[in-house]
Specification:
40% helix; two-stranded antiparallel ribbon; single chain; 7 helices; alpha/beta
Length: 219
């Protein structure tokens, strides 16, 4: 069953415009992760993008009534059941957008436990790049997700830039973040167990979480 079940990447885009630099960044990150996953294993990889602008009214109604619409429930299920998550928000007032926060307020704080996540944001100026560290990373820590080391901030001048001798360009940061997400996804299984080779097993041997805990206890 595991050999035929596709891996699922869900990208959440909180962009308000159409076209949107937020959506473009989400698409490029998803493509980078998908490319790495396709190169490193033989399962199909599915990518779904959740456009929050299309769900804005549904999100507001749910906050007021406590009942999600069918479309919003489908989006929440996609996020909580994904093997890997990409979360991208535009920067408003040096933080994530209200629409982005309102959507993740609807996610149970245990539903993303252990889920690998790439956080990213486009912005008008590089001065707001730390929004990823002081706003988004703590948000997903509260949701018990595992954010990959590389976060991706794209200032206006980053688009079309290949970087210089001192800094990486946006394309290389996207590839690195996508690769980290792919590696994190391959380190998990559908059941939540970690992949760890044993003495008598192949590289894809699965060690149950309970056994991992037992191995860490002192004799």
């Amino acid at each position: 069953m595991f050999a035929t079940t596709p891996l699922r990447i869900v990208a959440v885009s909180a962009g308000l415009g159409r076209p949107s630099s937020t959506r473009l960044l989400a698409d490029r990150l998803a493509a980078a992760a998908r490319e790495r996953l396709a190169a490193e294993q033989d399962r199909n990889v599915e990518v779904q993008v959740v456009e929050l602008r299309d769900l804005a009214v549904d999100i507001a109604h749910h906050l007021l009534s406590g009942f999600p619409s069918a479309a919003l429930r489908e989006a929440i299920d996609a996020v909580t059941e994904a093997d890997g998550l990409i979360a991208v928000t535009p920067v408003f007032t040096a933080s994530y957008s209200g629409l982005f926060k309102s959507f993740f307020d609807l996610i149970d704080n245990t539903a993303l436990t252990g889920r690998p996540v790439v956080i990213a944001a486009p912005g008008g100026t590089a001065r707001h790049s730390l929004v990823l560290e002081h706003a988004l990373r703590p948000l997903f820590a509260y949701l018990r997700a595992v954010t990959v080391p590389t976060s991706v901030y794209a200032a206006s001048e980053d688009w079309g830039s290949s970087g210089d001798e001192y800094t990486e360009g946006l394309p290389s940061r996207i590839r690195r973040a996508g690769g980290e997400l792919a590696s994190a996804i391959l380190g998990r299984t559908v059941s939540g167990a970690s992949r760890a080779p044993g003495l008598d097993d192949g590289e894809d041997a699965v060690v149950p979480f309970e056994q991992q805990l037992a191995d860490l206890r002192p004799a």
